[in-house]
């Protein structure tokens, strides 16, 4: 990785998480983005540096001793190369254009998983050859990436955000399932993508305490509010501390 961390964001729908990632990370150095996203450096070790769980709704504290020396010395710029969607009608594409970012549509309607993965891989590897590619962020991306695709890109960090406190409620409708279950909490988790659905190593996650008689709509909004904060922080934690999937 040189002086730039090049990122592609995959999205299928509305694009609110995508837009938040762009506003939080794009065209900022690692240290600039950390400050903007409430990540305070301390020289004192904390258990939060060693575990994925984050419980504070305010500042995220990261031990400066765990940050790679090369990351502090180079302080690379984060650059969103492209917003890619499998849905030509995704509102996320309009958001991306408004933000001045390149977009690419790889329509999935007439493709099976292997065909789609092949087309997506072709596009991503072309970006990698031309610019270098360091990270792929899934932000409301509704397709499951196959094992062969992931094997071909295993040298690139691929992250996903899931609206539950994993390993609870993997797959679709995580918010609704969390809202309806007997636990007194829901949650948000950011994890590496692996061939097992929503099962990769967790980078950060946070519980969201339920409020008695709260509507699903209000609970959903609180989940989204945590998503907008946690996803940029997880990205920055992964790169600042050199965390890779295992």
Task: Please explain how this structure is put together.
GO terms for molecular function: phosphoribosylglycinamide formyltransferase activity. Catalyzes the transfer of a formyl group from 10-formyltetrahydrofolate to 5-phospho-ribosyl-glycinamide (GAR), producing 5-phospho-ribosyl-N-formylglycinamide (FGAR) and tetrahydrofolate. The record marks 198 as: Raises pKa of active site His. Belongs to the GART family. Helices cover 36% and strands 23% of the residues. It contains eight helices and ten strands. The longest helix is centred in the C-terminal third of the chain and has 25 residues, at 216-240. The strands form two sheets. Strands 1, 2, 5, 6, 7, 8, 9 and 10 form an eight-stranded mixed beta sheet that branches. A two-stranded parallel ribbon has the order 3-4. It folds into two domains: 1-34 and 58-66 and 73-155, Rossmann fold (3-Layer(aba) Sandwich); 163-241, Formyl transferase, N-terminal domain (Rossmann fold), CATH 3.40.50. α1 runs parallel beside α8 (216-240). With 246 residues, the chain is an alpha/beta fold.
